[in-house]
Design brief:
By secondary structure, the chain is of the alpha+beta class. The protein is 37% helix and 37% strand.
Amino acid sequence: MKRLLFLGYLVLSFPVMAGKLDEAKARAHLEAIAKGDLEAVMQDYPENPFFEWVGGPHDGQYRSKKAIREMWADFFKDNLRPVKTGELETYSSPQGVSIEAQVEYVGKRKVNVWHIFVYRDGVLTAEIWQNEVGGEAKR
């Protein structure tokens, strides 16, 4: 009986534990972006990633590591760095974890971004940036 209770605890708590691990990965990803560290940013993506950028000069869908690398290299040229990051919010289920954050970037221009990171089995499989240049990112 104790074994069944313990196994039940593990099954029910896994999404919570996975959420915390994925949240740490999302923070590390945002920190790599903040530093303009292209290699650190790229190591987070699997072989077939998906990145959706909504609004601004990078608007579009990126469906390969090569395309995402080129987009990030261009983004880093603008020297945008985060000046304000909101609290990360985590939504988890046994199938995966979605994490959202609002970040204000300033460099050659000001960009407010609503980020969504999707992790499956601890891997960043999808990323969405909804941005509003010069304004507030709103949900």
